[in-house]
Amino acid sequence: MKIVFMGTPDFAVPSLKAIIAENRWEVALVVTNPDEPQGRGLKPSPPPIKVAGHQLGLRVAQVANLDDPDFYASLEAVSPDVLVVVAFRILPAKLLSIAKLASFNLHASLLPKYRGAAPVNWAIINGEKETGVTTFLLEEGVDRGKILVQKKTEIGEDETAGEVLDRLSHLGAEAVIETLKQIEMGNYTPIPQDESKASKAPKIRKQDCLLEWDKPAENIHNFIRAFSPDPGAYTFFRGKMLKIYRTRKTNIPSSGFLPGQLLVIDSGLYVSTADYLLMIEELQLEGKKKLLASQFVQGARLQPGEKLERMQRRV
User: Fold this and answer.
1) Global pTM?
2) What is the rounded CA–CA span in Å between residue 6 and residue 194?
3) CB of 176 within 8 A of CB of 86?
4) Which of 9, 94, 126, 284 has the fewest CB atoms in 10 Å of its CB?
């Protein structure tokens, strides 16, 4: 089978590598996004799939406009049997039928739950104990196609989105290989999604990551790990943005303390919530390096009653 692979971020890399490792199909073309400016110098940085594709000796095309007639003509010239899409973009309708056998997508949720750009983030925010990956046939609409393969995994109580996403990338690679083998054999039965169980997982915006300390500790704990390591749940401390990347729940009641109030107990850093104290383990003050909480405590010299705030204040 001749394959065109479309993807961009790190999540897509294990799937591409797994396809090559099978040594039974031809990856005729890898399609990814253009280089993007990153860092303080805004130096153009290649997408992870471009890097991986070149390392594997594959032909890579970086495309800004998927409606470009020249790009469409180049795909027609390849004449793929299968189109594999992993963490890419919504494809124009005319691309959905360009493959002879099938076009499918790998999604990081157990569809129809969490359709959209940020399925792992929203699953963790909502306190899900289980997630997984789904391959499905591409059709118009966001993540609505018929299901081909699903694989499940548990979400640990303290796991961050980054950790879960990394595991799902490898589980997803297994699903992609299984799906390709089914397509190759012509032995698969697509299953329609149950629309009554559908939920949305829209793209995360910066304002979505602002912490509210008057909520229960478990909700805040889930919120923090849902945005770790990127983009990072944030609050404000002494007028500067403070990102918190890792916390741990406790059974210490927060009665008598104000929401957001900071406490140091046996060199550990705690913050008061609506019900229990939450132990902060890893954080980063604006303009500074990421620190363990113990390091932060040594340098901050906290004053009695100091709080983390929802809004930036002058100091």
Assistant:
1) 0.94
2) 27
3) yes
4) 94
Domain range 206-300, CATH class: alpha beta
Q: Which residue has the tokens 């971020």?
A: 9
Separation CA 121–CA 126 (nearest Å): 9
Q: Which two tokens stand for residue 68?
A: 């470009």
Q: Give residue 31's Cα distance to chain centre.
A: 20
Question: pLDDT truncated to tens, each residue of the chain (315 aa)?
Answer: 999 999 999 999 999 999 999 999 999 999 999 998 887 777 889 999 999 999 999 999 999 999 999 999 999 999 999 999 999 999 999 999 999 999 999 999 999 999 999 999 999 999 999 999 999 999 988 899 999 999 999 999 999 999 999 999 999 999 999 999 999 999 899 999 999 999 999 999 999 999 999 999 999 999 999 999 999 999 999 999 999 999 999 999 999 999 999 999 998 999 999 999 999 999 999 999 999 999 999 988 899 999 999 876 554
By CB atoms closer than 10 A (0-12, 13-18, 19+), residue 179 is: buried
- Residue range(s) of every CATH 3.10.25.10 domain in the chain: 206-300
HSE (side-chain half, CA atoms, 13 Å) at 59 = 9
Helix (H, G, I), strand (E, B) or coil at 25: coil
Where, residue-wise, is CATH 3.40.50.170 in the chain?
A: 2-197
Q: Provide the 3-class DSSP secondary structure of residue 111.
A: coil
Q: 152, 297, 111, 164: which is closest to 306 by C-alpha?
A: 297
Tokens of 115: 């359709």
Q: How far is CA 61 from the centre of its chain?
A: 24
The structure tokens 């469409």 sit at 72
Instruction: Give 290: exposed, middle or buried? Use CB within 10 Å, 0-12, 13-18, 19+.
Output: middle
Burial (0-12, 13-18, 19+ Cβ within 10 Å), 20? middle
**Separation CA 220–CA 149 (nearest Å):** 33
CATH class of 2-197: alpha beta
Please name the amino acid found at residue 252.
I
